[in-house]
Amino acid sequence: TTPMVARALARNDTAEASRLVAQGIWLSTAVGCTLGTFMLTNADAILRVMGANAEIWPHARTFLLIRSLAAPAELWLLVAKGASYGHQNTKAPLAAVTIGSLLHLVLDVVLISMLRMDLAGAALAVVLSQYTAALFLLTFLVRDGILRLSDLWRLPDVSKIVTYLTAGRHLLVRTLSMQGFYTVMTGYGARMGTSVIAAHAIARQCASLESLV
Q1: pLDDT confidence bin for 198, thresholds 50/70/90
Q2: What angle in degrees, to the nearest 10, is found between the helix axes of 169-191 and 194-212?
Q3: CA-to-CA distance for 152 and 142, rounded, in angstroms?
Q4: Cβ contacts of 8-13, under 8 Å, gap ≥ 24
Q5: What does the UniProt entry say about where the protein is found (predicted)?
Q6: Of the residues 43, 88, 138, 193, which has the fewest C-beta atoms closer than 10 A?
């Protein structure tokens, strides 16, 4: 999204930039709903592939089923962040991520500690915070005219979708490679027991934080 929006703005074509963002939202909605549906309908198969043992199976299944509902929101946030970066605005994405993170923290305390929802509460906290961050940033884009609602309500142009997929093929390969690596490592960790998979989750979060510094 970022380079395509930036190129449109370099031509002073704000209308095209808005259409590109809208196309990205349509595409991310379709992909996110597809992924979410796949995880909802194939949760058991996914857990078997990941090597979940009997001890963690019910907890992992609960978390996966609820967590899958956030798939569209995560992709909306990526598109919205890309659009903001294309407009050379880094403050709005930072604000959205900060708001989402703070809400996530509060919801963890409320849902896990106070309401005793355990992993279901943890997953629900992720879902709600992701949608909040995504909708906050999308609202900002609409308010500042970066995304026009008239473009968002218009059906997507197939040629633009193809352009999106072609332009982002290198990033797609990189992302799939990283996720494939994390998936394999998580699968090995799950087969080694709950302590190992818990340590792996902490290490991955630390690595993700370090990559942002």
Answers
A1: confident
A2: 150
A3: 10
A4: 8/86, 9/86, 9/87
A5: Membrane
A6: 88
85-104 burial by CB neighbour count: b if 16+ within 10 A, else e? Answer: bbbebeebbeebbeebeebb
Distance between CA atoms of residues 201 and 136, nearest Å: 28
Contacts of 62 (CB under 8 A, 6+ apart): 119, 120, 123
Interatomic CA distance for residues 209 and 213, integer angstroms: 7
C-beta of residue 24 within 8 angstroms of C-beta of residue 75 = no
What percent of the chain clears pLDDT 90, i.e. is strictly above it? 47
Q: How far apart are the first and last CA of the chain?
A: 22
Closest CA to 78 of 153, 15, 27: 27
Largest distance between two CA atoms of the chain: 58
Is residue 134 very low, low, confident or very high in pLDDT (cuts 50, 70, 90)? very high
Q: What dihedral angle (degrees, nearest 10) is formed by the CA atoms of 181, 187, 192, 197?
A: 80
d(CA 69, CA 131): 10
* Helix 43-50 / helix 169-191 crossing angle, nearest 10 deg: 70
Spatial contact of 72 and 14, defined as CB atoms under 8 Å apart: no
Burial of 184 (0-12, 13-18, 19+ CB in 10 A): exposed
